Amino acid sequence: MPFRSAGGFAPGINISWRVRGTDMTGTNTHYILTEWESETNTNELIVHLYTLPARNVFEQHNENGKACSDLRKLNKSHVIDFFEHLIASWQPIEHWGEYSFINHETRAIDVTISTERTILERLLLRTIENVQPRNEIAAGSRKFTWLKPEKVVQNISIHRVIQCDVNISAAGVISVGFDLNHSFRTSESVSDLMKAGAILKGDRVIDKYNNMHYEFDEVSGDTISDVVPELRQSVIDYFVKERKQAWKVDKLDPKMPVVYVKMYNGQRSAYAPAMLQKELTFESLPPAVVRQTSEVYKQNANLKIATLLEEIQNILRRTDKLQFSKRKLLVEQSGYDVTKIENPILSFGRNVTQPQPKYGLEKGGVAFGQPLAINLLVYPEFFETKLEAITAFNEKLCALSSKWGVPLTILKKSGAYKNKSIDFTNPHQFAILLKELKDTAFKELTLVIATEKIAGMWYDSIKKEFGGSAAVPTQFVTMETLQRADDYILGNILLGLYAKSGIQPWVLSSPLASDCFIGLDVSHEAGRHSAGIVQVVGKDGRVLSSRANTSTEAGEKIRNDTMRQIVYSAVDQYQRHYGEMPQHITFHRDGFCREDLNSLDEVMESLNVDYDMVEVIKKTNRRMALNVDRQGWETKQGVCYVRDNLAYLIATNPHPRVGTAQPIKIIKKKGSLSIEAIIHDIYHLSFMHIGSFLKCRLPITTYYADLSSTFFNRQWLPIDSGEALHFV
DNA sequence: TCTAGAATGTCACCTGTCCA
DNA sequence: TGGACAGGTGACATTCTAGA
């Protein structure tokens, strides 16, 4: 058995591991990451590595995919995988069919070669997939899906899915990362759906035994006992004789018709419809089903982690290639340091400092403000029907704003539009009116009041005309919200208005480690890609400028020239605010950094500015949790695992009914700051989202970069919006 | 500097719920 | 009101290599 002890993790309590030595903190707290380092090193794994000759220059990266699948058929029971020119197997491959190899080695992989690491990662993952009981778990495509549904409601079944990734480090350390998700599909098979006429050509279907996705094509005239040309045998014989999986077909009606499905490459495949289920998208689910099932997939940390730990052990103990020991699940045993970052103290007006924005604003008002005048754009009908409600709302808004130290004036310009004889629900007529308004009356920040339906029709035209072409920021509020506005609603609307007019409600009371921060993102939507969206943030967390870079990028990679323009612009903004050059700039790259850092080095060196390049990864397939005195698993905001230049950080505190926190991954690519200082800055910057009472998961550098690039792509943003944050 | 293809990764989108 | 989270898809990017 690969495990030292066979005890399971019953939800929350029955944790049977023992940590060798003393707990570092002295308390009985266990910290885990859903990433398990194996006791097995790559040098203990001997593989057969075959090098195949390149046969077709145009297909050199995929031609071995076909070879690999043919070799698997010829050498049943072997686990075989490929990558590039290599084919790997645990045992010698005896039958080669039409293929030949030019080299064969039997050895451990060379961990310094990335291609060899990748092929072993793939071989290990396939090995783990192959040893799972096929009548219990569908394994494939890095997913392990339980055949038995967790719950069935109105013929919709929810299945547990564990997603896995295998990683090999340059030191030969093998680790498996995992996370728990759920999958929705019809509980009835495609065969049942056919009888009810509930399956159509083009519907997405899934092979429930192996996670393969297809597009439903047509019903054939043959039955599953007839010989079909593609298989040169019947579907039943194929599974009984060739695949030795009689259990898949032995209960099926032999008169069941064969169906055809289309694969991603357009190829057709013959199937027994009883093996297929129809895939369902989240929005297609009836609300009643969502209500009755959310408890299954919206799991609190204790349920999620306990299930995950128990099931990943079951999955991994089925293979003898990799050994795992339970103590390695404790992050300290995998070389991570556990730290807790304290929440920042925020500074408001009148020298008030407070961790909570709402209380800080009540006591001290905004940190930096000036009187504010705004326009109202109201759906004309409301002047007759809802005037009282709107007036009451305006009064409450002004009262709260003055309490926060910002005298608010609402300009009366309804005369400019309310008696126009146009159809306000017609987007074309309305767009023409907007052109007129922005040139005459509406030059200031505008609050738009309409019903949810009207707002939906107006949103794009208003953001384009006012925001994109006239640089007039707008804040929307629906009639429904306005009528039930309490202090939280009013507060968030006010914060939105402030952010859009350059009023700073709060700043960080203690300085960040770097002088200046730049958020980098690339956005692609409707075929357009714009990049190098720069958000310059100062030492107190204040956004000095936000600007969308106009250059259109070819891909996810930001061009050298664009990078230089971003740096020039940031240094310029910094000098205007502080009258001096920044000594150090930190770049927060949303996603992987693929930019050429040598070229950036050159620019920064000649400007005599130090820099750090940091990647902020949003989706990691990992969870973090801690367990105090075996009371159950929980997540704690501010907890952080650090190892070398890598860190996982929990920056949110979701309610248990909402789900389990998603950690962010932080990687220091290059620079002089300590990783601790970098994490600290990122965490504190996630409190600097000034458009709402609530903090965000990401630092505002990447969060705002993301928002503004989306706005920019939709032409809702002017080229230079200065201090105003149109996008909050 | 460009190209190939498979694998992989990220994003926006959608709907609903909960909370501050 | 805003934001996090839930799952799945489509869209589209990247990576790898080596020859022209």
Automatic annotation (TrEMBL):
- Fetch the InterPro entries from UniProt: Piwi, RNaseH-like_sf, RNaseH_sf
What's a single GO MF annotation on this record? nucleic acid binding
Q: Which is one Pfam family of this protein?
A: Piwi
Q: Where is the Piwi domain?
A: 444-717
Q: Which PROSITE patterns match?
A: PIWI (PS50822)
- Source domain of life: Bacteria
Family per similarity comment: Belongs to the argonaute family. Long pAgo subfamily.
> What name appears for this protein in its UniProt entry?
Protein argonaute
Q: Which organism is it from?
A: Paenibacillus albus
What does UniProt list as this organism's lineage? Answer: Bacteria, Bacillati, Bacillota, Bacilli, Bacillales
